[in-house]
Amino acid sequence: MEGMNIRHLLVVVLFASTACAQERYQINARYSDSGAKKQFSSLGEATVTFAKIGNSEFGIRVHASVKDPRDGKVFEFDVDNQYVAAGTRITPERNRGRYNENAAEYRPKVERVLPFIYLVRFGAPGDERTYHFQGGSYTVRQRAADGGVEASLYEGDELLGKFQLHGGEYQKFRVETAGKIALTFVRL
Questions:
Q1: 6 beta partners
Q2: Any idea where the domains of the chain sit in the sequence?
Q3: Percent of the residues in the chain that have a pLDDT greater than 70, as a whole number
C-alpha cells in the first residue's frame, strides 16, 4: 500500500461499503448553429456512480467518452469527486479528475455541474432550492412533468442543465457545454 495514506484508504473502504448506485448512459448531442438545430445520437457512453458516504457526505464518479461527429475528436474524462453538503453550502472534499487533451478545456463546466447531478436525484425535494458552491449561487427548480419530475439548474440566469426523473431515478439529463452544444445523457 505504498503511496496510499490512511485517509485515502478510509475513503476507499467507505465508498465500497456505502449505498452506491451505478448507471450507464448513452450520450447524444444537440448543436445550435445559426438558428438551425442538429441532433446527433449515440456519440458515446458514460458510467455514473453515486455514493452516500455519511449524513452530509456524498460522492459521484463519472467516466465518459464522446466522439464529436463533426471532426472525429474523442473527449474522455474520469472524475471521482467527494463533497460535503451542510445546509445549502457544498464543499469539495476530494477532487480526482483525469481529462484527455480534448476534454481538458471542459473541466470547469463538468465540475461545476457534478455535485448537482447527485443532489437533484438524492437531495431534499422542493420546488426551488439555492445552493452555494465554490463562490457561486446555484438554483435548482423542480416541477411535475410527464408523470415524474423535471429539474432545472441555474447559475444566476444561465441554464446549466435539465434533469428528468421518474420514480426517483434519472431517465435523462442534459448539460449545456461550450458555445451552443448541449449533451444529453439518456439512461440505458
A1: none
A2: 23-187
A3: 89
Hey, is 55 helix, strand or coil?
coil
- Whether the CB-CB separation of 103 and 74 falls below 8 Å is answered with no
HSE on the CB side for 31, CA within 13 Å?
9
Identity of the amino acid at 188: L
> In sequence order, what E strands does 55-157 have?
57-67, 74-86, 89-99, 128-133, 136-145, 148-155
Cβ-in-10-Å burial (0-12, 13-18, 19+) of 12 comes to: exposed
For the stretch 2-25, pLDDT in tens is 445 444 444 444 444 456 889 999
Q: So what's the pLDDT on residue 1?
A: 46
Residues 6+ apart with CB under 8 A from 157: none
C-beta separation of 145 from 154 below 8 A: no
C-alpha cell of residue 99:
481529462
Q: Which CATH class is domain 23-187?
A: mainly beta
| Predicted TM-score (pTM) of this structure | 0.84
Cα–Cα distance measured from residue 58 to residue 60, given in angstroms and rounded to the nearest whole number: 7
Dig out the grid coordinates for 101 from the structure.
487533451
